[in-house]
Amino acid sequence: MPDVKLEIQMLHDRIMVRISPEDGERRSSGGIVIPATAQMARRLAWGDVHGVGTSVRHVKVGDRVLFNPEDQFEVEVQGQTYLVMRERDVHATATERTDHGTGLYL
Fold first, then answer.
1. What local confidence, expressed as pLDDT, does residue 102 receive?
2. Considering 6, 11, 95, 101, which has the largest number of Cβ atoms within 10 A of its Cβ?
3. How far apart are the first and last CA of the chain?
4. Pfam families given for it (predicted)?
5. pTM over 0.85
6. pLDDT tens for residues 27-80?
7. CA distance 61 to 102
8. Pairing relationship of beta strands 90-94 and 64-67 according to DSSP bridges
9. Which residue ranges form the domains of the chain, and what is each CATH number?
């Protein structure tokens, strides 16, 4: 039997997110390099949406979302690590199409 590939479909209000690679080492406004291992207050992370369930209303594939990575479930697919979360766990979205926003841009 040949190796069958199965397409992943997210269910209900679930979102599959890949954490952005630039969320590692950071620079302060003064130019000081802050390593990814430095402990700070609970820090939210940006990630790219790779899949959404049928009941997700405000997030689309390709959007960037802001969320708490510590409260999510992790899954590995084809060597890549993704996080699975509910839509309600997303704090903000960054997208090109917007009806109303903060006026701040990434």
1. 59
2. 95
3. 47
4. Cpn10
5. no
6. 666 777 766 666 556 778 899 999 999 999 999 999 999 998 887 889 888 888
7. 21
8. antiparallel
9. 8-22+42-97 (2.30.33.40)
